[in-house]
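Hi Y.,

Following your request, here is the sequence exactly as I used it, all 190 residues.
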Amino acid sequence: MLEKIFKPTSEKFAIPFIKLLAFLNVKPNTVSYVGLFVVLMGAYYFYLGNNLFGIILIFLGSAIDGLDGPYARYSNLSTEKGAILDSFLDRIGELVIWSVIGISYTNSDIELFIVFSILVSSNLIPYLRAKSESYDVDNKKGITPRPERVIFAVVYMYFQLPFIYMYIFAFLTWVTVFQRFIFLYRALDK
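Below is the corresponding structure, written out as tokens. Let me know if you'd prefer a different format.
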């Protein structure tokens, strides 16, 4: 959803960084690893109680990770293996972010279940996109793709919002899962 609005602007903003990566001859997979490492460090600092620094690192790591695909395409280094690695590392990053939220913000079993629910739906969303692509179906349906999930997590942690927002967000992520599932399911009937 936000991707449609901000993608043209973010791609223009990313061009100098992409050119810098090309000048330094950095491999796109290295960018993926660095993005994950920065997210992991952010989650660690957040876990230790240094919330502002942790959130800045999580946001920065997610932004770095957002460069790997455009950079690979810009430098003609796109590969199927690189795309798989990027998706794999993205899932690890989301696991760590939602785990820190689960550890830091839950006060009951139901709240922990809601965080697990978001984690599962956050993994089903890209799975359904990838599964759709295996059937030549372009499936980017939904209101909570990865940028929205990361932004929500960062905003939630920074402002230490009431847990009711987690219930709402869990609902929205599952809406996205079902939007993608139904879209793919119907596309296979054609």
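The radius of gyration is 17 Å.

Thanks again,
Q.
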